[in-house]
Specification:
Elements: E1 3-6, E2 12-14, E3 19-20, H1 42-53, H2 56-67, H3 72-100, H4 104-112, H5 118-151, E4 164-165, E5 168-169, H6 170-187, H7 191-220, H8 237-254, H9 257-260, H10 262-265, H11 271-304, H12 311-317, H13 321-343, H14 345-354, H15 361-374, H16 377-380, H17 384-413, H18 438-452, E6 458-460, E7 463-465, H19 478-481, H20 484-499, H21 504-507
Family: Belongs to the purine-cytosine permease (2.A.39) family.
Main location: membrane
Organism: Streptacidiphilus jiangxiensis
């Protein structure tokens, strides 16, 4: 069943003559994408992942692992393995988007219920809004330093030393607002504009990273001492204690997209396009970027006497103005491409799914932008240990739980067969109990508790490093905390499948 026509009043007609006219559950953005508009090819998905993976948090992932005691080879191996693992649920959930042309919140209706899908959708939206704010603050910082380089820092040039407002120069707040406006201007023009931005941003970001590497190698006269530093953990028990929670954190980094990838694959021209585009784009890009970050940082250590992991800070240290401007431009393009694709598209659809009659994709994007400011990202990013590294593990565990339910329902129970019309109306086969599938909710709650219930904070120098108790929120679950994503994914998948064991035949469309 495919989309045939969208009427001015918002009603949507499917090819078989079925009309989706309930404003509580459908609008033009949530309806299946018609076949003629499914124009994304392999390169589009490859470019999408290059644009999303090449961002500052990705660049600094390797630094976090090296700081934990790994050498560069162990760090790159951990990142590569994590992205191969997270690619699997991404391809499995992405299949539904391409086959039926539906976004993530509509796909979730099959397992959670037409109304119950708002639960996983809002969880995903909340995470995205926080990340949107953080990335926008980073992009604003790039503009702030870029303009400072152009104006110089001599007498009479007060851009970098302007008066402070709420702890930061007013010029940095202005830069933050400017970058926010650029993002909103792009995303409100729709998904086709996003596709075009990603297409030209991807090669520019790769070129910029390679140019930065060449510059640093030339200045350093080599790659510096970092590549020769041995692992502080070795390959014994100490390494494995760090490896597994680090692996879960790296998986958690893209566990968000493993849920809402149908938001993009719904525009795919074929399953082959999304499968090969993502397979070629995600693991290879993240691994290459990890290697580049280590090599460039190694060069910075040789040139400046200390490793500089933040590419914005590194670009600001360059004495060559042209080189610094180019590096900062690349940083801004990279941040723009990842933030729009990874952190605006999903909540825009998720919020539209909540009240389709009043919120379309564009309105949802605007709400995301406002919430991204309201969460005060400048405070979130002030403590990376608490809000980035701890957060990745918790978010990964919770979102892994949702992924397990989606995959169990779509692949094990329904064998990829959905009834499109019933995804958009009350009283159909996905209505369950008042619009909620209580079995999915139960699996989510149990899987979520198992995955993140034992979350704990490490203690260093007698000081607790994080928001959780040192013994874990639920002490007897603490041993599971280091494996949050895997525990959440596996437990929810198995529990949901078992709860529906007797009704397997009824799930087949």
């Amino acid at each position: 069943m495919s989309l045939q026509q969208t009427y001015p009043d918002g009603r949507v007609a499917l090819a078989e003559g079925v009309v989706l006219d309930d404003p509580r559950f459908t609008n033009g953005d949530l309806a299946p994408v018609p076949v003629e508009r499914r124009t994304w090819r392999t390169y589009n998905y490859l470019a999408l992942w290059v644009g999303m993976a090449h961002c500052i948090p990705s660049w600094t992932l390797a630094s976090g692992l090296v700081a934990l005691g790994m050498d560069w080879k162990q760090a790159v191996l951990t990142i590569a393995l994590a992205n191969v693992i997270v690619l699997v649920p991404m391809l499995l959930t992405g299949h539904a988007g391409t086959k039926y042309g539906i976004p993530f919140p509509v796909f979730a209706r099959a397992s959670f219920g037409v109304r119950g899908a708002n639960l996983p959708a809002l969880i995903r939206a909340a995470v995205a809004c926080c990340w949107f704010g953080i990335q926008t603050w980073i992009g604003g910082e790039g503009i702030y330093l870029l303009v400072g380089k152009v104006l110089g820092q001599g007498p009479g040039h007060g851009w970098l030393t302007a008066g402070e407002v709420l702890g930061a120069p007013w010029t940095q707040w202005l830069s933050f607002l400017l970058f926010w406006l650029i993002e909103i201007a792009v995303i409100t023009r729709g998904m086709e504009t996003l596709r075009k931005v990603e297409n030209w941003a991807a090669p520019l970001v790769i070129l910029g990273a390679l140019v930065l590497l060449g510059f640093m190698v030339d200045k350093a006269g080599g790659l510096g001492p970092l590549l020769d530093q041995p692992s502080k953990l070795g390959w014994g028990a100490d390494f494995w204690k760090v490896f597994f929670p680090a692996l879960m954190g790296m998986i958690g980094f893209w566990s968000t997209l493993s849920l809402n990838i149908p938001d993009f694959t719904r525009f795919g021209g074929s399953q082959k396009a999304q499968l090969w585009g993502q397979t070629l784009g995600l693991p290879t890009t993240m691994t290459l970027f990890a290697v580049l970050s280590v090599l460039v940082t190694s060069g910075s250590q040789a040139v400046y006497g200390a490793p500089i992991w933040d590419p914005i800070a590194l670009a600001a240290r360059m004495s060559d103005v042209a080189g610094a401007l180019f590096a900062l431009l690349v940083v801004m393009v990279a941040t723009l491409s990842v933030n729009i694709a990874a952190n605006v598209v999903s909540p825009a659809y998720d919020l539209s799914n909540l009240v389709p009659k009043y919120v379309n994709f564009r309105t949802g994007a605007l709400i995301t932008g406002v919430v991204g400011i309201a969460v005060m990202p400048w405070k979130l990013i002030a403590n990376p240990h608490v809000y980035i590294f701890t957060w990745l593990g918790v978010v990964g565990g919770l979102l892994g739980t949702v992924a397990g339910i989606l995959i169990a329902d779509y692949w094990l129970l329904r064998r990829t067969r959905l009834h499109l019309a019933d995804l958009y109306r009350a009283g159909g086969r996905y209505w369950y109990t008042g619009g909620w599938n209580l079995r999915a909710v139960a699996a989510l709650l149990v899987g979520g508790v198992l995955a993140i219930g034992g979350s704990y904070s490490t203690v260093s120098g007698g000081v607790k490093q994080g928001p959780f108790p040192a013994d874990g929120v639920i002490p007897f679950l603490k041993p599971l905390a280091d494996y949050g994503w895997a525990v959440g994914f596996a437990s929810s998948l198995l529990l949901y499948a078992l709860l529906n064991l007797g009704g397997r035949a009824s799930h087949r469309e």
